[in-house]
Amino acid sequence: MTDKRNNPKAWLYLLPAVILLLIFSFYPLINTFRMAFLNGYNGLAIIGGEKFTFGVENFRTVINNVDFKLYLRNTVLLCVLTVPISTVLALLIAVALNSIKPLQKVFQTVFFLPYVTNSIAIGMVFNAMFTQVGVGDLVQTYGIINNIIGLFGAEPINFVNTGSSWGANMFVVCTYIVWHALPFKILVLLGGLQNVNKQYYEAAKIDATSKTRTFFRITVPLVSPMLAYVVITSFIGGFKEYSSIVGIFGESMGPAGSSGQMNTIVGYVYNMLPKSNLGNASAASLILFGIILVVTAINGYVSKKKVHY
Amino acid sequence: MAAAVKNAKAIDIASSRRAQTASNAVRLTVTYVFLFVMAVIVIFPFYWMVISSLKTFDEYRENVPTLWPRTIVFENFGTAFEKASLVDLFLHTLYVGVVSTVLSLIVTVLSAFAFSRLEFKGKNALFGLLMATMMVPGELYTITNYLTVAGKLPFFDEAVSWLDITNTFAVLIVPMLVSVYYIYLLRQTFLQIPNELYLAAKVDGTSDFKYLWKVMLPLSVSTVITITILKMMGAWNSYIWPRLVANDDAHKLITNGLRGASFVTETNETNYPAQMAAVFIVSIPLFLVFVFLRKYIMRGVSRSGIKG
């Protein structure tokens, strides 16, 4: 009964999971590669009994596609802009939280709030905050954000409405993504800070080390594993960005009149699907997978050299 | 002489200490101001959502927006319920959420048990394979799954119509049942239960299944709750898959319905107060989860950035 080495009954327990994974994970994985490398694959057999030929045509089509280039640029920029900003902000907030006693729990609760939200729903709130009501001379209100920046003497900016610029759109999307990314990062970094041995700080105090030096020489190295972790996960999340932009702009992925202006790689995949451009969709998703693998590998390499355990 | 030096030193220490307290006070003030400003920024969108949902359309459109509604109205909530048919959306989502959570828990518990307590050939290889799938972006699966649920089988050119399950509740539940992350989470919890308990149960002749049900599950309640909350929130927040495969009115889920709903007035303007009311209503269950079940989410979150 207690045969320790091989218990075939284990497979009975695993059966539901394995069957579902075979159908909905492993088969799709193989099939995506197949579709990506069949030239012009659209799910239908070519009339006359011909078969699709193997090749890299789909990849060539995708890479040379004007839309895809814009979406790729959007995605890369989103990552490059939001990951450092949100990580630095989260680290500052975590350090600040860790250094206070009264109100610490209150602040901690507040900063976790954006995590438990619906990214589409709150995206719509961001749209409302940045949007102007009315057009041209008939503008009734420029929106609350424009009113706030107006207090500092700035001219109202068309952030998300018809005719708004790519840069203004980018600003709104980045603001939202950073806002949304903070809670997870603060949580992880604060957890790391609270586990740092207090003796390091006491030693620094005795040596009269300045606070800045303490921060860069003690705090940052000691939380570097957590920093590496949040940077990797947010890069992966950033390259898969899609829902936040749907939240702000809707399915058109851009302001009225310039749909697709803010679209991303994932958005490209979902654009291709209903059009039966399965070969292109598969190729694009493999490119995304490749980017994520490379970024993860680079991050892993850098953190191996820099992360202090 | 010596006394004078001592005295001077004492004065020196005292003044440096005073300077230190002063700089500490400054630092503390700066810290609190920084945290306060960030907290305001974090809360502001929620605040804006709530007060906008309570404003009249005219007040919302005022040139300089009011920071507190001059007249508080609740009619926006009625408009929101009607325009977005929120009751239907809510019932669909509740049904999908409950059924998929129950089924998913069964699958997860059984697999986590096999991976943590049973010995079988290929166990480590299979677990490694499962872990590796966590690296793969979901979009890679979505393309083929989109075909599969429409009845398109491998090696067949034509879709099999009776296998087409698009626009059903099943299509929203079945493909999402297995989450490798939940299996991993529960396996870790199971592994913390001492093996002696299992061996003792074996000696007593308890079956594996009975042991799992009577001993392991009760000891792992908190992880089961974490998985339940994350899975329910997943159903509540899921957008892409439901939008793709079940976009009809009879099966629409709440997030998809919210984004797709039109809040346009007779004069063809977006009725922002009604829209914000709808967003508010959709956010309420999440706020309740946040208030009462925060610690379970935090426990799951700190181990992974994966949502739902």
Count of discrete domains of chain A: 1
At the fourth level of CATH, the homologous superfamily of chain A is MetI-like
Oligomer: heterodimer
- Please report the number of helical segments of chain B: 14
Can you tell me the residue ranges of chain B where pLDDT is under 50 for at least 5 consecutive residues? none
Helix content of chain A: 55-70%
Provide the CATH architecture of chain A: Orthogonal Bundle
The CATH topology of the domain at 84-261 in chain B, please? MetI-like fold
Radius of gyration of chain B, rounded? 28 Å
Give the SSE order of chain A as H and E letters.
Answer: HHHHHHHHHHHH
Shape of chain A: globular
Specify the helix fraction band of chain B.
over 70%
Distance between the terminal alpha carbons of chain A, to the nearest Å?
44 Å
Helix tally of chain A equals 12
Overview of this structure, please?
The complex is a heterodimer of chains A (309) and B (308). Chain A is mainly α and 309 residues long. Chain A is built from 12 helices and no strands. Chain A has a single domain (62-306), classed as MetI-like fold (Orthogonal Bundle), CATH 1.10.3720.10. The longest helix of chain A has 33 residues, at 66-98. Chain A starts with 8 loop residues before the first helix and ends with a helix. The mean pLDDT of chain A is 89. With 308 residues, chain B is mostly helical. Chain B has a domain at 84-261: Orthogonal Bundle (MetI-like fold). The interface between A and B is large, with 101 and 92 residues.
